[in-house]
Amino acid sequence: MSGDDLKEIFLGSGRAGRVQVERHQDIYICGDTERLIYFVESGSVRVSRPSAAGRDCLLRIELAGGIFGELALLEAHERLETATAREKGAVWRMRGSDFWRELRKRDLLEPFVSHLILRMADQDRRIAHLITEPSLRRLGKMLLMLAHRLGTRTREGFRIGTRISHEELADLVGTTRPRVSTFLCDLRRRNLIEVSDNRHLVIHEESLRRFLGDF
């Protein structure tokens, strides 16, 4: 399902409302019961889940064109996660029942289900990596995934246009920020990744894949 399809549903249906969000503002929190699904117009949103140990588990980052809050499509289901703006931006929100109606009207039910299945597959891969892979390998695979999900292909490699902190990477791969910083330095020394002049991460995909294959 394309970002243009989602944009047309939220911006063109007349059933959604636009909300400005500030950096670090919670859009909803774990336990909320409101029935709204969201579309990112600008900025980016982190979706995380609290743990018993008090540390958030970062589930994913949504950029412009992405959606979040899909549990609103189920009746009587409270939020299992918290959505927080990573920067100043704007989101659109729509009632879950209206979103279903728009999907049916536009014959987009099948593409949307495919989108959800792919998202579940990504989460399953992450869980498997957390259980079976060492931290450096988890980080390398996460960088490859982020490159394809959030990056743009350039002559140098995949450039990730949004800045992702070492702490966020640590949350994504289930390790500590100091270890992530050490691993990133090692990957840069091996010329598998680099940091551009405007501080964006560039992933040399083929070289990193070969390294992980030999790891």
Keywords:
25% strand, Jelly Rolls, 7 helices, Arc Repressor Mutant, subunit A, 4-stranded antiparallel beta sheet, alpha+beta, 42% helix, 215 residues, 12 strands
Please, what is the average pLDDT? Answer: 88
Number of domains: 2
Output the CATH homologous superfamily of the largest domain. Answer: Jelly Rolls
State the assembly state of the protein chains: single chain
CATH architecture annotation name of the largest domain: Sandwich
CATH topology-level fold name of the largest domain: Jelly Rolls
Largest β sheet strand count, sense and barrel closure: 4 strands, antiparallel
Helical stretch tally: 7
Distance between the termini: 35 Å
Please identify the top-level CATH class of the largest domain: Mainly Beta
| Helix/sheet category | alpha+beta
Low-confidence stretches: none
Helix content: 40-55%
Number of strands: 12
Please give the radius of gyration in angstroms.
Answer: 18 Å
The sequence of SSEs as H and E is HEEEEEEEEHHHEEHHEEH
Strand arrangement within the widest β-sheet reads 1-8-3-6
Range of strand content: 15-25%
| Shape type | globular
Concise account of the structure shown:
It contains seven helices and twelve strands. With 215 residues, it is an alpha+beta fold.
